Amino acid sequence: MSEKFDVIVIGAGPAGYVAAIRAAQLGLKTACVDAFVGKDGKQALGGTCLNVGCIPSKALLDSSKQYYNIAHNLPVHGITVEGAKVDLATFIGRKDKIVKQFTGGIGQLFKANKVTPFFGKGKLLKNNEVEITGNDGAKQTISATNVILASGSVPIELPFAKFDNKFIVDNAGALDFTEVPKRLGVIGAGVIGLELGSVWKRLGSDVTVLEALPDFLSVADADIAKIAAKEFAKMGLNIKLGAKLTKAEVKGNEVALTYEDKDGAHDLVVDKLLVAVGRRAYSDGLLADDTGVKLDERGRIVVDEHNHTGVNGVWAIGDAVRGPMLAHKGSEEGVAVAEWIAGKAGHINLDTVPWVIYTEPEIAWAGKTEKQLKEEGVPYKVGTFPFAAIGRAVAMNEAIGQVKMLAHAETDRILGVHMVGPGVSELIAECVVAMEFKGSSEDLARIVHAHPTLSEAVHEAALSVDKRAIHKGN
């Protein structure tokens, strides 16, 4: 007879491991199944996010920023450094240490909360049984009253630019180059393409980004995207819009590309090619044919507003379901589902999930864009404020970008906040709190913000909604 649990979570990424820990905290006997293998060949909890996504990319972004600052930002402070160079082995090694620290940390959290980890690929069978196939091919079956599917997502592979993990790579490969590529091609000007393109550009790569869409960063507010595009161009990222890759062929130690835009076909030769055209829900081998769990046309697990699949005791969360593919969204769904299972009041509001791109400058937003409000016919007011008028930003020599706030024209409720500039990954949190509590722009305008801080840009943008910003003309 198989071992029985209250909850089995399939997947130990930021959605799955958080769901498992919260379920265990609530007194439920919990297991978590995951097959991710670390560089040392052992189980590495944390999924894509901790192993080859959020955490390692931020480590490299920070390291590359330090190097970039030496030549580009320190001289204005009167600081000159001669002969700076990058030891790439140490550069990558620091990232690996951080990854190991955090993946090991999840193991300790499992131990502390009495979550039972299983190493292998989990497959949901009928009657809420889960078959686990180890890396050695051995199988075992466990069962539970509730199963939470948190299988995550994987990079989309182009049929004419298949990953070889040497010349044509996905996000994981772009974290482990053994030398700085002289010429780096990036397909896709989304979050991954911009962040990893920035890392290698700062270290000296000649980076060309091909984006098939005609508009830059169309998911963000147009005004914010326009400012960001201008800054990336200054940095030296060569971003080509409306450029669709049609061919990628490895020739010797190079990759020969062909792409098309409004002017016709063009050739481009690079040393490495990062394909970052998006991610797809990973449900391969996750479900037996008779489970009753349904997938939509994009391979995502179909769920209701409470992340339930419609099959008794089966739930799904994170990148494998609808909504933005963001680690923090998955984590909060994990908490909510664990609490629903335990009979408590879980909560997740997809309308206030913040987005962040950790480039230089950073980009962050929550809620509706101006374009969306126009399309939906919602009356709105706009308030903006530039970081160029913020004393702290000027003192930091990072006076780039602005905060843009959108509020309902009649109720003044905050509908969206969009930012590009220094530290906006942190500033957006204040706006999310205000939106979650259905706050108005006047609420933020009347709150005292410390001076001098970057957060004053949020305060002034809120004042600007009613044309009463103090430090700029309205």
UniProtKB/TrEMBL annotation:
<keyword id="KW-0547">Nucleotide-binding</keyword>
<dbReference type="InterPro" id="IPR023753">
    <property type="entry name" value="FAD/NAD-binding_dom"/>
</dbReference>
<feature type="domain" description="FAD/NAD(P)-binding">
    <location>
        <begin position="5"/>
        <end position="334"/>
    </location>
</feature>
<dbReference type="GO" id="GO:0050660">
    <property type="term" value="F:flavin adenine dinucleotide binding"/>
</dbReference>
<dbReference type="InterPro" id="IPR012999">
    <property type="entry name" value="Pyr_OxRdtase_I_AS"/>
</dbReference>
<dbReference type="InterPro" id="IPR004099">
    <property type="entry name" value="Pyr_nucl-diS_OxRdtase_dimer"/>
</dbReference>
<feature type="binding site">
    <location>
        <begin position="188"/>
        <end position="195"/>
    </location>
    <ligand>
        <name>NAD(+)</name>
    </ligand>
</feature>
<dbReference type="InterPro" id="IPR001100">
    <property type="entry name" value="Pyr_nuc-diS_OxRdtase"/>
</dbReference>
<feature type="domain" description="Pyridine nucleotide-disulphide oxidoreductase dimerisation">
    <location>
        <begin position="353"/>
        <end position="462"/>
    </location>
</feature>
<feature type="active site" description="Proton acceptor">
    <location>
        <position position="451"/>
    </location>
</feature>
<feature type="binding site">
    <location>
        <position position="122"/>
    </location>
    <ligand>
        <name>FAD</name>
    </ligand>
</feature>
<keyword id="KW-1015">Disulfide bond</keyword>
<keyword id="KW-0285">Flavoprotein</keyword>
<keyword id="KW-0963">Cytoplasm</keyword>
<protein>
    <recommendedName>
        <fullName>Dihydrolipoyl dehydrogenase</fullName>
        <ecNumber>1.8.1.4</ecNumber>
    </recommendedName>
</protein>
<dbReference type="InterPro" id="IPR006258">
    <property type="entry name" value="Lipoamide_DH"/>
</dbReference>
<feature type="binding site">
    <location>
        <position position="278"/>
    </location>
    <ligand>
        <name>NAD(+)</name>
    </ligand>
</feature>
<dbReference type="Pfam" id="PF07992">
    <property type="entry name" value="Pyr_redox_2"/>
</dbReference>
<dbReference type="InterPro" id="IPR016156">
    <property type="entry name" value="FAD/NAD-linked_Rdtase_dimer_sf"/>
</dbReference>
<dbReference type="Pfam" id="PF02852">
    <property type="entry name" value="Pyr_redox_dim"/>
</dbReference>
<dbReference type="GO" id="GO:0006103">
    <property type="term" value="P:2-oxoglutarate metabolic process"/>
</dbReference>
<keyword id="KW-0560">Oxidoreductase</keyword>
<keyword id="KW-0520">NAD</keyword>
<dbReference type="InterPro" id="IPR050151">
    <property type="entry name" value="Class-I_Pyr_Nuc-Dis_Oxidored"/>
</dbReference>
<feature type="binding site">
    <location>
        <begin position="325"/>
        <end position="328"/>
    </location>
    <ligand>
        <name>FAD</name>
    </ligand>
</feature>
<comment type="similarity">
    <text>Belongs to the class-I pyridine nucleotide-disulfide oxidoreductase family.</text>
</comment>
<feature type="binding site">
    <location>
        <position position="58"/>
    </location>
    <ligand>
        <name>FAD</name>
    </ligand>
</feature>
<feature type="binding site">
    <location>
        <position position="319"/>
    </location>
    <ligand>
        <name>FAD</name>
    </ligand>
</feature>
<feature type="disulfide bond" description="Redox-active">
    <location>
        <begin position="49"/>
        <end position="54"/>
    </location>
</feature>
<feature type="binding site">
    <location>
        <position position="211"/>
    </location>
    <ligand>
        <name>NAD(+)</name>
    </ligand>
</feature>
<dbReference type="GO" id="GO:0004148">
    <property type="term" value="F:dihydrolipoyl dehydrogenase (NADH) activity"/>
</dbReference>
<keyword id="KW-0676">Redox-active center</keyword>
<dbReference type="GO" id="GO:0005737">
    <property type="term" value="C:cytoplasm"/>
</dbReference>
<dbReference type="InterPro" id="IPR036188">
    <property type="entry name" value="FAD/NAD-bd_sf"/>
</dbReference>
<keyword id="KW-0274">FAD</keyword>
